[in-house]
Structures are given as structure tokens and as C-alpha cells.
Design goal:
The complex is a heterodimer of chains A (227) and B (78). With 227 residues, chain A is mainly alpha-helical. Chain A contains six helices and no strands. In chain A, helix 1 packs antiparallel against helix 6, helix 2 packs antiparallel against helix 3 and helix 3 runs antiparallel to helix 6. Helix content of chain B is 83%, strand content 0%. The interface between A and B is medium-sized, with 33 and 31 residues.
Chain lengths: 227, 78
């Protein structure tokens, strides 16, 4: 059995996250209690989504530069895994919000923006599915993907921070807001030591899943790919 | 020392440096219990959740590896 080194790193990091993430002592803040441990599971979903969608963007640009259909398969599969990660982020966020904000969906700016971001990427898949000519599909969806990424980043990272939000990272002075997301002292040193390996582990898992789907796509479309 | 700053080395070394955290973790489990059962029941049974999550992770990883191997076989056949 031969596994690539980064897949082994992924497995080790995830086991580290799942064990140390439960074992360490966490600071008890406000009404978070032990649910602060979600930091090792919910937050990396979004980091994973950003990484996967950025890779998707990169391969879309690579497609437009080279017209190699291989890169179109890469871009589509990274986007698909990115959507899965984002959906998991929304669902886990809603579970957590039920017990900290009082309801699963508060129409919070962060929730709405994240949902819109996922819809934009679902539209990317709809757009791909609407075309049968593979050259046309690859070119148009690559252009759309570039547009999608640059509306995605403001939606999830910039806009929610400019308004009052329940979610950590919202504007100062709001109800439950003003608590920084990743800045300052919000995360104690021990939590940081779990959090960043967790982010890397989850990102690698996303890349691994995409990698499997890409390889299947390459096998299925090998008559279209000109090496 | 051909590639002093390869991605492989950076990721592996940063990962291994985080493993020192295990040292923080041990006193928590040892102080409250002497056997597995007591450990699992300590700290509001948080370790039960840990065991459940690790079981899910183990099975998912094994499943992922099996798919990976199957695709590798198919790639070789092509």
C-alpha cells in the first residue's frame, strides 16, 4: 500500500485534532462552555472551503491560459468539494447557533452571506450542467468561476465584518458582537496549537477527496485530454 | 540538503512540533482515573464523544484509502 506523504500527514493531523481537540482544557467564555471546541471542526470547514475554491480558481485560470480540458476537470472537482465543505460549515454553524444564539437560523449577516456564497457556487454547477459542448462549457464556466471567487471572498470575509453580527468577528457594539474572530486574545495559546494543525488537516482532507474525484474524471475523459 | 525549504519539510516539521501538546494532555487523564472506564466517565463524559468521533474518523479514512487504492488500480489498467 503506497500513500502519498501528504495524505499520511492529513490522517495524522486529523487524528491529532480529534484527540487533542477533546482532551485539552479550554477557556470557558460567556455562554460558549465546551462548545468552544467547535473551533477545531466548524471553523476549518470555512478555511477548507476558501482553500479549495482558491485552487478551483487557479485551475480555471490555468484552463483559460492553456485550453487544456484537464484543468477544467480540476476546477470543477475542487469547486464541488468546496461546496460540500461550505454546506458542512453552515450546518455545523446552525447546530452550534441553536445552543448559543437560541435558534439555528437568526438571519445573521454571516449566515446569509455564507448561504449566498454557496448558492453562487451551486449556480456554477448548474451552468456547467446546462452545456453539452465540452469546450464551451469549460471556457464559460472558467470565466464564471473567476467572477464567483471574487464575489465569494467579500461575501464571507468582508461584508459580515462591516455590519452588526452575532457571529464572532462582527462590528463592535452589536448584540454579542465585537468579539474578534481570530485576532487578539480570543484564542488562547493551547487552542491555537490545535487550531492551525486542524485547519491544515481539514484542507488536506478536502484536497484528498477532490484528488480522488479528479482522477476518476481524468480516467473517464481520457479521450478528451491531449497531453 | 538539496531543497532546504521544501513544502514537505515545512509541513512535517511544523506538524511534529505540535505533537508536544500531548505532554499537556496527559495529566488531565491520569489525575482523575486509573482505568479506562473511569477515564471515559471523567470530565462530563467528554471522552465518550471523543471515542465516537475517532471511530467515525477511522472508518471514513479507511474508506477513503480503499477508494484511493481502487482508483490507482484503474489508473494502472488504463
Amino acid at each position: 500500500m503506497k500513500l502519498k506523504w501528504w495524505k499520511i500527514v492529513c490522517i495524522l493531523l486529523l487524528f491529532f485534532t480529534f484527540s487533542a481537540g477533546f482532551i485539552i482544557k479550554v477557556p470557558i467564555l460567556g455562554n460558549l462552555h465546551q462548545s468552544i471546541r467547535n473551533f477545531f471542526f466548524h471553523v476549518p470547514m470555512w478555511f477548507g472551503q476558501i482553500a479549495l475554491l482558491a485552487l478551483s480558481l487557479g485551475y480555471s485560470i490555468a484552463y483559460l491560459r492553456t485550453q487544456n480540458i484537464k484543468y477544467d476537470i480540476y476546477a470543477a472537482e475542487f469547486a464541488r468539494t468546496g461546496i460540500i465543505f461550505g454546506s458542512l460549515g453552515l450546518i455545523t454553524g446552525a447546530i452550534w447557533a441553536t445552543y448559543t444564539w437560541g435558534e439555528p437560523w437568526s438571519n445573521d449577516p454571516k449566515q446569509i452571506a455564507a448561504a449566498i456564497a454557496i448558492l453562487i457556487y451551486l449556480a456554477y454547477l448548474v451552468l456547467r450542467g446546462s452545456m453539452t459542448d465540452f469546450d464551451k462549457r469549460a471556457r464559460i464556466s472558467a470565466v464564471y468561476n473567476i467572477f464567483a471567487f471574487f464575489i465569494y471572498i467579500p461575501l464571507i470575509m468582508i461584508l459580515p465584518r462591516m455590519v452588526q453580527s452575532l457571529h464572532p468577528g462582527g462590528l463592535e457594539g452589536a448584540k454579542g458582537g465585537g468579539n474578534p474572530a481570530l485576532g487578539g486574545d480570543s484564542l488562547d495559546a493551547t487552542m491555537k496549537m490545535i487550531f492551525w494543525p486542524a485547519v491544515l488537516g481539514w484542507i488536506l482532507l478536502g484536497i484528498w477527496i477532490s484528488n480522488l474525484k479528479i482522477r476518476l474524471g481524468l480516467i473517464a475523459n481520457k479521450n478528451l485530454i491531449n497531453e | 540538503m538539496s531543497k532546504p525549504l521544501s513544502l514537505k519539510r515545512i509541513i512535517l516539521s511544523s506538524f511534529l512540533s505540535f505533537y508536544s501538546l500531548i505532554l499537556f494532555a496527559q495529566p488531565v487523564a491520569d489525575s482523575s482515573a486509573t482505568n479506562v472506564d473511569a477515564v471515559m466517565r471523567s470530565n462530563d463524559k467528554i471522552y465518550v464523544v471523543m471515542a465516537v468521533c475517532i471511530t467515525i474518523l477511522v472508518v471514513l479514512i479507511i474508506y477513503l484509502i480503499r477508494i484511493d487504492l481502487k482508483i490507482s488500480k484503474k489508473e494502472k489498467a488504463n
